[in-house]
Request: fold
Amino acid sequence: MSFLSTHRLIIEKVTLSDGPFVLELMNTPTWIQYIGDRSIRNLEDANAYIQNNYLKTYEQYGYGLYKMVLKTSLTPIGMCGFVKRDYLDAPDIGFAVLPAYEGKGYTSEAALKIMDYGLHTLNLELILGITSPENIRSQSLLEKLGLKRQGTIASADIGKTLYFYSTADS
Reply:
């Protein structure tokens, strides 16, 4: 069931039928390098992750990470949405795309739509962003979305120091 769309994308909730896609995405080199290894090694792991993370987040917070699907082929290509982390005061925008679709503007297209949804439909007062210091592409996209770098924060998820962004002025 799609609930958002852009010129080229359908943005919809992840479902239990998305196990193969989640397994593939979460094992790409960029996911593991920049987001972290979630130990998703098979379809059973992927389905459990969907149930315990994506579906639970939609229910608990009314938002989460959403699947980016090409309108032309209905192929899932990435994720974009909001994550509520225990160590952050507000949701942060997250995104990832399969390597074959990097550099084509899909993530930017989805993230702009998700930001609009967060600010104007969910009425989020504050949206955060975090990224690895070496992830220049994510830093550029966060800035394109209007987030400003505020400093660094220690990530409880992956045990690294990350750049911290916010929609707040300072």
In short: The longest strand covers residues 76-83.
